[in-house]
Amino acid sequence: xxxxxxxxxxxxxxxxxxxxxxxxxxxxxxxxxxxxxxxxxxxxxxxxxxxxxxxxxxxxxxxxxxxxxxxxxxxxxxxxxxxxxxxxxxxxxxxxxxxxxxxxxxxxxxxxxxxxxxxxxxxxxxxxxxxxxxxxxxxxxxxxxxxxxxxxxxxxxxxxxxxxxxxxxxxxxxxxxxxxxxxxxxxxxxxxxxxxxxxxxxxxxxxxxxxxxxxxxxxxxxxxxxxxxxxxxxxxxxxxxxxxxxxxxxxxxxxxxxxxxxxxxxxxxxxxxxxxxxxxxxxxxxxxxxxxxxxxxxxxxxxxxxxxxxxxxxxxxxxxxxxxxxxxxxxxxxxxxxxxxxxxxxxxxxxxxxxxxxxxxxxxxxxxxxxxxxxxxxxxxxxxxxxxxxxxxxxxxxxxxxxxxxxxxxxxxxxxxxxxxxxxxxxxxxxxxxxxxxxxxxxxxxxxxxxx
Amino acid sequence: xxxxxxxxxxxxxxxxxxxxxxxxxxxxxxxxxxxxxxxxxxxxxxxxxxxxxxxxxxxxxxxxxxxxxxxxxxxxxxxxxxxxxxxxxxxxxxxxxxxxxxxxxxxxxxxxxxxxxxxxxxxxxxxxxxxxxxxxxxxxxxxxxxxxxxxxxxxxxxxxxxxxxxxxxxxxxxxxxxxxxxxxxxxxxxxxxxxxxxxxxxxxxxxxxxxxxxxxxxxxxxxxxxxxxxxxxxxxxxxxxxxxxxxxxxxxxxxxxxxxxxxxxxxxxxxxxxxxxxxxxxxxxxxxxxxxxxxxxxxxxxxxxxxxxxxxxxxxxxxxxxxxxxxxxxxxxxxxxxxxxxxxxxxxxxxxxxxxxxxxxxxxxxxxxxxxxxxxxxxxxxxxxxxxxxxxxxxxxxxxxxxxxxxxxxxxxxxxxxxxxxxxxxxxxxxxxxxxxxxxxxxxxxxxxxxx
Lengths: 452, 452
What we know:
CATH superfamily of the largest domain in chain A: Nonribosomal peptide synthetase, condensation domain
Strand order of the largest sheet of chain A: 4-5-6-1-12-11
Largest sheet of chain A: 6 strands, mixed
Domain O-acyltransferase WSD1 C-terminal (chains A, B): 301-446
Domain O-acyltransferase WSD1-like N-terminal (chains A, B): 4-259
Protein name (chains A, B): Diacylglycerol O-acyltransferase
Shape of chain A: globular
Catalytic activity (chains A, B): an acyl-CoA + a 1,2-diacyl-sn-glycerol = a triacyl-sn-glycerol + CoA
CATH class of the largest domain in chain A: Alpha Beta
Strand content of chain A: 15-25%
Number of domains of chain A: 2
Number of helices of chain A: 12
GO molecular function (chains A, B): diacylglycerol O-acyltransferase activity
Oligomer: homodimer
């Protein structure tokens, strides 16, 4: 069996859970009573049509070696997978994030299909939340987001939205119980790409060690590039897309450049507060969509690449940071476009593979970090969506962390907002929620700098 | 390093968490406001004097082999260990047990000291709960209960109870950072005894296989004696000690015999409901206190033995079941008293060791179960206790399960009550809470049978 097939299960340890998470905030429909959420859960549980993906479990749950593939769980216990929780007083977003942090830091049970969904009540503003986690071997973050959108509706009057384990289309019949290749179940381009990483890593890693290939820039060592523990912190907040759009238009840069400049400003402020700002600028790994250059060959099928972006965190001036970031992103794209598809893949592979390789002993402590953190901007729903009449107010992605990458910023667009999710190692990244405040400051500074 | 030192960490897998748990129910003191629990938590968190036991973590958290011993956690994060949670609507005991089940089925993080405590608000009757879990390598259930009692007070006016990680007496100074033998930290006689089990098991296991030693009775295969998953169900309820005492006096048997007869009746009803009652009677392993017969020799130091008790679940008549149970317990005691101390130890070792050995592959499927479940009756507080004015209403022990032992009943006395905690494998033992109803019926039947 090729190692790629079970990679996400094999590299998982207690300290490196390999699930992706998402936190959603909903406004209850009008007329919802105090037991609304319990009733919603009961109604949904009555729907026992479960998508094939959510019925699969590893064929050999106990052993850490010899995963033959998937098998179908014949005794699926929806009550276990779909849970009902509540926030303690005073029920602020802060309590919600604390609970999400806890859930995001525990491993999924390999005896069962690798997903959990938590409905959360008790927010003092009357809204409710949903936290879902799915193993990366089933779905990557992009595919998980796409699945979420597929069960929602843009019509607030619709009341027959499928449950999160369901689907709008009936699935084609397929033989049950036959173990399946793990990667055959991994949907989405990022999942397919990352599956190739070990092979690419081997070639690229050798090239790197023998100085035949050099990284396009140097990342400093920071407090984020350390071995991590198993516990997590998660913070989340939304900003109006219009504010980012205005800055982008005024500065003549892309919206993603503005987002990266927000992150750069926030990281700079956070590191100054922690007395840990390095002299050299931080380098972010930014997954980007790549158009395939040729139609033939398997390599060109991968539409996700990775750019390294100079975050200019050493510069105190927000406008200067934005300019450097925008230039760095343009350089990054040019770099890819001048390479052959194989070289592109190798370079992407090297960048991404550093993540895949990090649980190996010694990698973190003996090598320089290829980048300081991953910042992903994932396209989300363009229109306002509803779940059986409940308005979707926010979608906040919670990501996988690995040794040497103790913090991750992933954001998604949601109708008129940009929703940021920040995942950190609980031990290495104290006061993670401060980054939210700094993001807010950074956006205001960018607005001030470009308003002239 | 002897294998006994790190046994509880070495045998732990995702499917066999090796922590003991406890659920406590408290009545709030008069005048407590809506944020009482949050304030209690903040007040307690201000107390950063942490008992040595609760500062230790495994010296090598990542590897599953080569545990050298303990090291002191120099960055203890009390906020991580001591958590604040809430129940969803309608906030019944049922919702509390559901949450406890979930917590009891997840592993402790080995990067940190091996304990977690959850304060729970949102019970609709106004009470609050505490769930604590501690790794068996630190404390066994008996020692954990003793520790809990040591921080409480029998005076409702006392307001300076130490936090659960504290202690009333200042600890003797000891060198920090020096790795310590794991078993040196395991307090309590059961912990010490179980440490001896692997050696005893080897000898006894060989004797058993070679038919030189036979088990005193035959346990049937039941739905409880199967390989288990990692998820748990937990159910708990209290009964007045006076009711059990009355039945014991009327029948001329011990209170523990009545408790065992309650369990026998409940298990019989549960298995009938599940269409899984075996023809042969269930056999319980019952830990008992043993007086050492001789003063010299290390073997006699172990004051905990294990009896096998015939639960007479094949008999429909409650009085007949009680009589058989009482006789079986007397026989069991006689059996021990006729053996040499070494034979006693071996027999206890064989019984207990079957638990320790079960995570080894093949043990469950290839051998007959030596007993069907463990039923422990642990002495608890004799007087009504308070925690900073909050009245302790119940103490419900949540136990360790292992392959072949998918259900466990542990009870403790608490002032005027007997508090039962039932732990089950979530997959193998459906509708575990039904056992509570059946316990209630069984006690009523015993009362009716002995009232004449």
